[in-house]
Amino acid sequence: MQRRTVFFVSDGTGITAQMLGHSLLTQFEGVEFDQVTLPFVDSPEKAEECLARIEAEAAGAHTQPVVFSTLVNQDLRAIVRKARALFLDFFETFIDPLEAGLGVKSSHTIGRSHSAMDKKEYHQRIEAINFAMAHDDGASHRELAQADVILIGVSRSGKTPTSLYLALQFGVKAANYPLIPEDFQREKLPEALRLHKPKLFGLTIAPERLHEIRKERRPDSRYAALDNCRYEVEEAETLMRREGIHSINSTTKSIEEIATTILRALRIHRQIY
Amino acid sequence: MQRRTVFFVSDGTGITAQMLGHSLLTQFEGVEFDQVTLPFVDSPEKAEECLARIEAEAAGAHTQPVVFSTLVNQDLRAIVRKARALFLDFFETFIDPLEAGLGVKSSHTIGRSHSAMDKKEYHQRIEAINFAMAHDDGASHRELAQADVILIGVSRSGKTPTSLYLALQFGVKAANYPLIPEDFQREKLPEALRLHKPKLFGLTIAPERLHEIRKERRPDSRYAALDNCRYEVEEAETLMRREGIHSINSTTKSIEEIATTILRALRIHRQIY
User: Given this model, what pLDDT does residue A114 score?
Assistant: First the structure.
């Protein structure tokens, strides 16, 4: 197995470089990558430190390191580029064709993304997080009218992580509401939810997977028993079908995939970028 | 003001394309961008739909649309590329130099990033989210030994969003603990925290900003009064200094910037990619 050290270099957090870099690296199965993020490289001194770090790695390793960069400033880029590494530039590569295509010069300003400069976006994000926290697990029926989406599903079907992700990544207000055996016996949606039917979205999950997840939290409980998981999932799916509620099976989906599917299904626009 | 429609096209969620695309677009101040994400383009039929959508925009608009793509499959890329648009390919551009540099062929497999295929990573992420929820706002002292970081700070200094982001983005277990007037009078850290001092990290904030935030939640309260905010922030900062606790001022920082700074300061390795 080949090993490689990969550096994500950025004048900001490095999160964008990590995401694109990581999605490229997953395409190379025969290689094991040691990933190092060097964020906030926003001065010549820090660029020199960064260069020294990469050079030390290049000197010690048998293989050439890989550098993914989103450095905006060309003077800083020029310093880091001196490293004996495979340098892949996520910024410079696209800024020229964009300038040509748009007919506008770029500002080459550091730290524009993920900076808290846009106060309105920042506010919407924090509001969405507060909303998700206040409306987790059916904690409150108040202000459900303000929700962009209300997730429903049995306990441990993935509602909380999805709600939080919708808030943090997209600034979308998500409440979530557990479906419990009482709801199935009543054979109808809880009153508080019926008023907001167009905003409902269901999460379902394979009973076997639910059993595994619940077993870890409460081993040997009726709650975690496979036959009970089967019963709850079947009842929840029947209820969603009967009420015509969009749903997704979360079993093999990532939080990102579930959240993106919900935005599309309910035609919700993200509030932040 | 020039207007442009921008498409983020992906066989996955499109989140990576959005992040890099958005950080490039923020460099063009004189242009207003309408941003459209076309996710899950993973079949020739969907690629044709996507092409039709972009072509319709190109026909109706005065300006050429911009397409940011992370499509992995070259046949699907070839379909979407036919559009009369400025096509910027975040995948193809880097996969060739990576193949050459690594001396390995890529697998060209769709949907490897953000897919829930890595069960261990998925599990660590969910564990971290559960941990953050269970240890929000000092809710529990149990299992603090399992925390990677314990955030402290006055109410509304940004602890909850930071804890959740650390969990969701990095799989890092973060507890958070409010500093309250009783802590200042005692002139020492709460007992439960003293045991875990190397894991503590402080968030502080400008009193004027804190006043604004608290005022929105509880107008005309003592809690939100500017002089009380000044008092609490000063006491919290004094306590952090005295105890030698790393801290960051969150006033003009994004959640991403705060979270990245914490990982570096405490040398915490992210658990997921």
Answer: 52
